[in-house]
What we know:
Among the domains are: 1-160, no CATH class; 408-518, no CATH class; 520-619. Helix 1 runs antiparallel to helix 7, helix 9 (201-232) packs antiparallel against helix 10 (243-268) and helix 9 runs antiparallel to helix 20. The protein contains 22 helices and 10 strands. The protein has helices at residues 2-30, 33-37, 39-62, 69-74, 81-86, 92-113, 119-143, 167-196, 201-232, 243-268, 272-294, 308-332, 347-378, 389-409, 420-426, 428-444, 450-474, 481-490, 493-517, 623-639, 642-646, 652-659, and strands at residues 520-526, 531-534, 537-548, 553-563, 566-571, 574-579, 582-587, 589-592, 596-605, 611-619. With 667 residues, it is α+β, with helices and mostly antiparallel strands. The strands form 2 sheets. Strands 2, 3, 4, 5, 6 and 7 form a 6-stranded antiparallel β-sheet that branches. It has a 4-stranded antiparallel β-sheet with strand order 1-10-9-8, with helices on one face.
Amino acid sequence: MIIELGHFALVLAFVLALAQASLPLIGAARGNLALMALARPAAFGQLFFLIGAFAALMHAFVTSDFSVLVVVSNSHAAKPMLYKIAGLWGNHEGSLLLWVLILALFGAAVAGVGHNLPAPLRARVLSVQAMIACGFLSFMLATSNPFARLIPPPLDGQGLNPLLQDPGLAFHPPFLYLGYVGFSMAFSFAVAALIEGRVDPAWARWVRPWTLAAWCFLTIGIAMGSWWAYYELGWGGWWFWDPVENASLMPWLAGTALLHSSIVVEKRDALKSWTVLLAILTFSLSLLGTFIVRSGVLSSVHAFATDPARGIFILVFLVLVIGGSLTLYAVRAPSLKGGGIFAPISREAALVLNNWLLATACATVLLGTLYPLLMDALSGGTAKVTVGAPYYNATFAPLMIPLLLTMALGPLMGWKRGDLAGVLSRLRFALGVSIIGMLAVWYFHSGGPVLAVFGIGLGLWLIFGALTDLAERIRLFRVPFAASLARAAGLPRASWGAMLAHGGVGIAVLGITASTAWTAEKIILMQPGDEAEVSGYVYHFVHAEQGPGQNYTALRGTFEVSHNGAPLVTLQPEARSYPVPPMDTTEAAIYPMLSGDLFAAIGNPQGDKGWSARLYFRPLQSWIWAGAILMALGGVISLSDRRHRVGAPRSAAIHHALEAPTAAPAE
């Protein structure tokens, strides 16, 4: 009965989404306040019914209701409770339900807190949001019903992919979806603005918090995914340019460009057309990621390989959303004239360069991701082309160098016209630290790659560039220290957030560079009592023994690690064997330190030759995720800025113009 109620709630949510997608839009076009007002209760109602549907499916997973097909396919009775819950979104149907729930959550949030939005704009935004919901809900009801019954029910289920039975990956998809779906708000605002023919600083002020929230969630989601790949797959790596990894990176790059572009619209009333286009493209890339994961066109640990019919449905939906929005953009964009004029050396110009580089990097990743699929389709499946790390290292990395160089320059530039010589003078300390850092690294790692030495310099440049920005804002050493503290306390939270995020990028760059260039590893066979030295750390293999887990059996190795003759830590990696579904996995043991990570993974015994072992020392590895956390934290601090809570101020004349049923195109 609960399952049937959940299915019925899903149908009611679809009906409300249809009403929300049409009636408020008609009301905004006709100036009918009653129809426009329907958007808010429809958004709340849609969220209510989707919460009910989600709760019904959650109940089925928690209670192991094997009369539900999706539960049978992705759970079993012996699975720990955390993974029973996570199994809901560890499959195609359940993840779609989570997607539309988050979509409705963002729509209801706009309906709830968007009181300062003009009524026509709010109605159009919520209508566009509902159109997206209609597409996904119709897809679910037509081809991917999460409430389909299986009669007669089996005694037990088939289980969840053991690689996905991990705490990190249990929370990874919800954060990713909060990011993917969060960008739908920027898309809805962009399409609504194109319909009205108006983009102004107030519009940018409304869009930016939603974009920033989505960016923060996506940053956390990507970081959690890379951490999971690092310790769960047992390969010692954290990023493999997997197509599904790329599917999350592309909207992150475009969303980063959108964040910076919206600042120019808000501050200088410029780059309007480009910002609207970025809003459309960012969410379009999120939808493209959905197609890649669910169409069955690729094989990946992360992918939901499904039948081609579902892929065709998503492809048609993708064409309608992206094609329709870009067509509207082509018609309306000429009317979005920018008002701000700026010199080639200015903060605006630095942000434009930032946008170009991010957009080019995104296009590079897109090409590398789609090229194998395109060649496979053109050859009829006879030509299998693989695009791997060498391509991305040769194309993506060079684009990041000028981007990182300008990141420290931009915040110190003046609006409209900047003084490059003056900015470089203020950054002389950051430049000096970077040069000293590169020389030190070159001295201690003379055998390492030259570009890695430059990468260390870039990381230091970003960190001390952010500190220089702070020092300039509080006039450190130029006024009494108490006055500097007072100025620091009075800085807008958005400024603190930007500095923290830029510094976080620098820390992540240091981690990426050091762990990539100077990792020391040994892959050997070891008997109990054997020792292996890795970068000055001695791994002593004590023994390996079989032991039971919650729903698996494990071969657990014990390594005692010492440094300079002193005991340091005991590592116990595991090689797990899951009976349902049958699969072997590797659970690495990691000891993070400020200087780097000690990493050990154990494999199955090789006869009487011993056990295979992977032993690593990865310098500054944890700095990658520390940097990502600081970036997300910077975004959260920026999001708490008062300007994002109160919205943009409007004069009575502007307010009246915005409230008009049909707005004239911006001049």
